[in-house]
Design a protein that fits this description.
alpha+beta, 138 residues, single chain, 4 helices, Ribosomal Protein S5, domain 2
Length: 138
C-alpha cells in the first residue's frame, strides 16, 4: 500500500513478512539504503552478521536498488534467522507495491514465497516432537 507518512510527503511502501514465529512489518522510504530494525541500525541489530544483513537486503540487491530506499522494520518474535527471512519477504512485497514490474525477477529468485516450515509441536509420551524415551527391554 502506498501512503504518505511523516517524512515530508514522500511515498512509503509497506510489506509484511513472516517466517517461523517471527513477524516483520517493513516500510520502504526513498533514502540512502540504510536498514533500521526496531530503532537500531541493522548491522547492530543483526549483530554484525553479514549473512543476516545480506539476506535482509537481497531483494533490493536483485533489483539494483540497494542505495535508493531506506528499510524501516518493526520485527517481533522468533530469533535473528527467522526475523531476517521475514524482513526479506516484507521488503520483496513492498517492492511489488512500488512497481508491479518488480514481481517477476523477485519471484524467480524465490523472495515472494513464504517459507512454511515451523517448529513441530511436542507430542504426549515423547520428550520432544519425535524424540522418544529410551527403550528398555527389561
Amino acid at each position: 500500500m502506498q501512503a504518505t507518512d511523516n517524512n515530508g510527503g514522500r511515498a512509503v511502501y509497506w510489506g509484511t513478512g513472516r517466517r517461523k514465529s517471527a513477524i516483520a512489518r517493513v516500510r520502504l522510504i526513498p533514502g540512502t539504503g540504510q536498514l533500521i530494525v526496531n530503532g537500531k541500525p541493522g548491522d547492530l541489530y543483526f549483530q554484525f552478521n553479514p549473512n543476516y544483513l545480506s539476506i535482509a537486503k537481497a531483494p533490493l540487491e536483485t533489483l539494483g536498488l540497494e542505495n535508493e530506499y531506506d528499510i524501516l522494520v518493526k520485527a517481533e518474535g522468533g530469533g535473528l534467522t527467522g526475523q531476517s527471512d521475514a524482513v526479506r519477504l516484507g521488503v520483496a512485497r513492498a517492492l511489488c507495491q512500488l512497481d508491479p514490474e518488480n514481481r517477476s525477477p523477485l519471484k524467480t529468485e524465490g523472495y515472494l514465497t513464504r517459507d512454511p516450515r515451523a517448529k513441530e509441536r511436542k507430542k504426549y509420551g515423547l520428550h520432544k516432537a519425535r524424540k522418544a524415551p529410551q527403550y528398555s527391554k527389561r
